[in-house]
Amino acid sequence: MQKQLLKFGFENAKLKGIWHFSLPSGFTCPAAKDCLTYANRKTGKVKDGSAQDYRCYAAMEEARYPSVRKSRWHNFDLLNGKTGAEMFQTICDSLPVALKKIGGLLRVHIGGDFFNADYFKAWLNAARVYPNITFYAYTKSLHFWEQSIKSIPSNFKLNASRGGKYDEKVEALGLKSAEVFFSEEDAAAANLEIDHDDEHAWKGLESFGLLLHGQQKAGSKASQAQKVLRQKGWTGYNHKEKEVALVN
Known about the structure:
The protein has about 250 residues and is of the alpha/beta class. It contains ten helices and nine strands. Strands 1-2-5-6-7-8-9 form a seven-stranded mixed beta sheet. It has a two-stranded antiparallel ribbon with strand order 3-4. Helix 6 links the parallel strand 6 and strand 7.
């Protein structure tokens, strides 16, 4: 029987030329708060988190596109319930051949997050095996990062995603962070540059900002802020993954 492999993508509007991997948003985000959003696996119907300030753009892509939802749940089904060693082996077996041979950039999660400590460590171990690949991720699972903070491989670039349950660890541990802003003015007031192409995430050393993106709940503060951003010419990142680019 042929072994089932995880699915990776190679392109979206924000990440041209960068490989990416995803899981179902919300369902695999144990530390999410401000952006917590779920798209029902079967129907795509959206459920908002109780403390949500804005909807997760990745979850909204899952709500809109059944094919995206399907590929992310496929990945989670192959990983969920496995040991750390099994997840590590599944990840290594599934990494695209071209990426393993040539190297390059891999964003771990457009949708989803590190859902347990063993899964987090499985990715760290994969990075050690493939030093020619630059792995990078945004994560709110700072409690898992903290557990392994002294053993993060140099080719795994982590960014603490603010707006989660463990934000206090950003300052306590001196972590590089990313924060979503509702306006360019708010980001400027925080003295943070806006990242438009993820270069700040995988290459930069300083904390940075992101502008609100993705479909927002009608009538919400986030929706009103998004309207103002659009009037100023901001159209978002248009993250819809091209299914033809999914491999494995």
